Every structure is written in C-alpha cells, then in structure tokens.
Amino acid sequence: MTETTANSVPAFASLGLSAPVLKAIAEMGYSTPSPVQAGAIPAVLEGRDVMAAARTGTGKTAGFALPLVERLSQSAPAGARKIKALIVTPTRELAAQIDENVTAYSRHLKLRNAVVFGGVKINPQISRLSSGVEILTATPGRLLDLHSQKAIDFSDLETLVLDEADRMLDMGFIHDIRRLLKLLPTKRQTLLFSATFSDEIRGMANKLLNDPVAVEASPRNTTAEKVEQHIHTVEKSHKPSLLKHLIIKENWHQVLVFTRTKHGANRLATKLEKSGISAAAIHGNKSQNARTKALAGFKNGEVRVLVATDIAARGLDIEQLPQVVNYELPNVPEDYVHRIGRTGRAGASGRAISLVSSDERKELGGIERLLKGKLKRVEVEGFVPEVDVEPEREPRQPRGGQRSGGQRSGGQRTGGKPAAEGRGNGGQRSGGQRSEGQRTGSKPAGEGRGNGGQRSGGQRSEGQRTGGKPAGEGRGNGGQRSGGQRSEGQRSGGARSGGQRTGGQPQQTARVDDDNRGNRAPVQREVDGNRVAPQPEVNGNRAPNAPSNDERPRRRSRGGRNRSSGGNGGGRSNG
142: how many CB neighbours lie within 10 A of its CB? Predict the structure, then answer.
C-alpha cells in the first residue's frame, strides 16, 4: 500500500482537472483543494485504488466525485441499463447529497447521473436507468432490488466507490455489500472513503483493494480542532428538562440532537413540541417525504430542533450548524466522531455537547479511549447528579486458588488412561488428591464440577466411584469429607448417600464461610424431623451414634422399590 499524507495543498488546476470541471468548481466557490482532495484526486485520475481517511466536513465527496467526472467525460457513454461508475452510501440523505454534487461538478459536461434509494416508488427509477447513466449513486437495498428486476447491468462498470466505508463494511450492510461484489466485474477500480477506519475495517478493506494508495488527511478517528466538546453529567430522568433549559438559556435557534433509538427520537421531539419548542424527528421509520420535509424545515429555520438517530450522522451537510447535542451517547465510539462532525464543517467553529447519565459510563469510556483524552466536564446548577458517572476501570483478572504439594486442581488421574476434564474453583487442597473428575479405576470417570471445599487424600468430591464402571456425572458443593465417601451421585456398594432426604425434609445446603474461603461449614442432618449435630467420619467409617443408611427414614415409591428422594435415579440396596 502506498501511503500519502496530504499536507501540501496545490491549486485545483495542478491536479489534472480539465477546464470545464475547473469552471464548475469555481462557480461553486471552491478556491483551494482540501488535503484529502489534494491526495486523492491525482490517484483516482491515475486509475489507482484508494483508501482515504479524513475528518467529516473536509470535502471527501469532491475527492472522489471530481476525478470520476473528469475521467468519464473522456470515455464512451454508457449503454442501455448500464453504468460506468457506482457510488454506494448507507443513507438516502447522503445519496441525494452526493448526486447533487455530481450534477454541479458536471454541469459543463455531457454526463448523465442518477440516484436511487428506497422509500420511494421504484418505477420512475427503472425508467431513469433504462437508457443508461455514467454515474449512479445508490443505497445497497434498492440497488439490489433494481438488479433483481433486471433494470441495471453492471457488466461495463469501471469504478466502485464506497462512501462512509466503515459503515458499509460493518454488520449492518456487509451482507448486502458481499452480494453486490459478486455481481460486479472483478477487474475494476475501488475507492473507499470515510472519516473513521477501525483496525478491523481496515483489514476487511484491504481485501477489496489492489495495491491501494492510502490518503491520511488527518490523524485517525479525530475530530475537528475548532469544535468545542464538553459533557454535562445528569440523572437520566432529568435529561429532557436539562435539554430544554440549555435551549432556552443559551438561546439556541438551530440545534441537532442525537438519540440512540427511533422511538426515543419521536418521544423527545414530542416533549419539546409540548414545551413550545419547534422540533421534528428524522430516522429510518419516517417516509422519505417526511424526512425531506423535516430536513428542509431545519435548514430554513422553521424547525428549531432536529432530533435524529445516527442515520443523520452520515451525510447531513448543514452550513454553519452551531451546535450538536448527544442526548444519548452512541453505542459505537466511532459514531461519536461522525455525530459531532455535523458542526464545525469546512473550517468553521462549533460546539458538541453530550448529556451523560450514570448508565452510560461504558460508552463514555469507549469514546474517551478512541479520542485518547478526557472530555471536559461542565456542571449545570440544579442538574448535578447524585451518582458518579466517571467510567469504570477495567477489572483485573482473578488469580487462581491456593494449591500445595504435587496435587492437580483438575484432570488428574492415577490409572493408565486420561481422566475426563475437571473444572474447579479451587479451595485449599492437599497431597495427591483430585478435586474433580478423579478416578482410581481403569476407565475414565465422568466429568465433575465443583467449588472445592477442604478435602483430604484419596477422596473424590464429585463423580467419584470405586467400581470398575464409569460413574455418572456428579455435581456437588462438597463440605468437609474424607476417605472413600461420596457426597452426591456416589455409588458405594449399592447404597446411595448423596442427595438423600431424611424425615421428609430437604437436606440443608452447606454455606461457605467468607472468612475461611474454600472450606465449607458442616452440614446438619435431620433424623425423624429432629436436627442432630454432624458426626465425624474416620477412614470412611461412621463414628458411634451416627445413624446408618438403614436407620434413615425412607419413603415407599411405586413398584415396591426403596428410592431416596434426592438421588439421580435413587439409591438401591443390594439385598
């Protein structure tokens, strides 16, 4: 990849543009190319693939549209239903804006251009494409619909442009873009333009490009220097009141407000209207006519507040927009850069204000990491929250449990075959014991999972067995146990000890003592409804006065079998 840092800015005439194009841009008031234009225009004219990154409001559209107009004016016109250059954008507003610019740049040339997007009738678009156009600007969904109806032919395509390429390659559009790429000629020029490129998107983009020229007109993921940025911390429920307070106190006559959701945009616009502040919402659920009307009203001053979702962060070009408000922070940090890029365009100054509540700590931290700096905090009297909203630090990874000697916490075995996987949150263990999945026979034991308590040598907390066949999976929160005992799911001879009910009452679960982590408190038992103190065991033998299995109450189950109520299949006697 050839890298170009666009610092020196030549005049438009030195970039290789013809007289008709120079005349058109002079009539539009262009005098000196921006850094991204100076870097991209020569590379596009040479037929090179380009990946250009520049801040919003720096003239990226002219960076690819001017050289396209220049090149196509010197080639044969497109045939019926065919196109020569395709510009794909994520939003209808951006598509319409680009098409307007292409029309202006080519006003002194015999070029045909068109724009297609959803939300309007498709038949007029089919009719417009029937004779072919040199430059087509489109949104992905409508473009694929037109191709499926055989209204468009890509066989003569020479150049593909993905504007706002980071959004076109993310999960929202990537499936449509992949479908589209399969329909296009493999031999073509590809241009990618955006204000932000994450490392992941850059990796995907490089697979689409052939030896591209990389134009870096500004540091990655940065905002305009002339945009003043700060945040107001506030309780979530007080955000509508704070926004109304700022509009009235600061005497804002034109403000663009961003929300996360479409319904949130509608609700906020309704609240502002009820407060006597003219407002309109714009988002994907609105019809194209409603979106166009809202945007026109905002530009001409009829609408004081335009409430939008991130659809408006891509492509809205409003001259001298004084301020942008993030009513809610975006989920994706890069979207913050695009949002505030609606103000401070073309070197003008502006303000970006964010209302941040305590539930947005994660989003705030992501934005500040992206910008590599903290945003200025400004308190508004009467709206200072009680809960701190500072981003939380990333938690440290927990350390492992304490182990001693030659033990293993999981997966250890004494036989000749590997044991099944064991997983434990190891408490204190000793000697050659195994906390989970250990076995002493010749076949693998089932998987055991436990939060190991204190145990002594040779025992098994879960899933242990002493016979020659694999034991079923046992899962226990083992208390203190010794020798060959099994707490749950154990088969020892024929009797089943674990999970057994006594006296019709459920056995109490052992509680972990926080002051002695990993060692469980003794479990108290009940016999005939009376609670008795736990009896110690020595080498698997019950101490005197401890009730045996036969002395424990049993209930009669269907079929005449004695079955313990808590077992997995129950315990059955050998006799």
Answer: 19
Exposure string over 20-54, b if 16+ CB within 10 A, otherwise e = bbbebbeeeebeebbbbbbbbbbbbbeebbbbbbb
What pLDDT does residue 223 have? 55
Strand 213-216 vs strand 133-138: parallel, antiparallel, or unpaired?
unpaired
**Inter-residue contact 488 to 462 (CB < 8 Å):** yes
* Cα 553 versus chain centre, distance: 57
Contact yes or no for 58/197 (Cβ under 8 A): no
Structure confidence by residue, pLDDT tens digits, 74-113: 999 999 999 999 999 988 889 999 999 999 999 999 999 9
Is 333 exposed, middle or buried, given 0-12, 13-18 or 19+ CB atoms closer than 10 A?
A: buried
**In the chain, which stretches have pLDDT less than 50?**
5-9, 401-529, 532, 537-575
Q: What residue segments make up the domains of the chain, in order of their start?
A: 2-216, 227-377
Q: Do domains 2-216 and 227-377 have the same CATH topology?
A: yes
pLDDT of residue 265: 94
Specify whether domain 2-216 bears CATH 3.40.50.300.
yes
Smallest CA-to-CA distance from 168 within 89, 93, 92, 97 is with 89
Rounded CA separation 210/194 (Å)? 18
What fold, for 227-377? Rossmann fold (3.40.50)
Q: If you write DSSP's letter for every residue of 521-560 in order, what string do you get?
A: PPPPEEETTEEEPPPPEETTEEPTT---TTTS---B-GGG
What is the Cα–Cα distance from 60 to 138, expressed in whole angstroms? 17
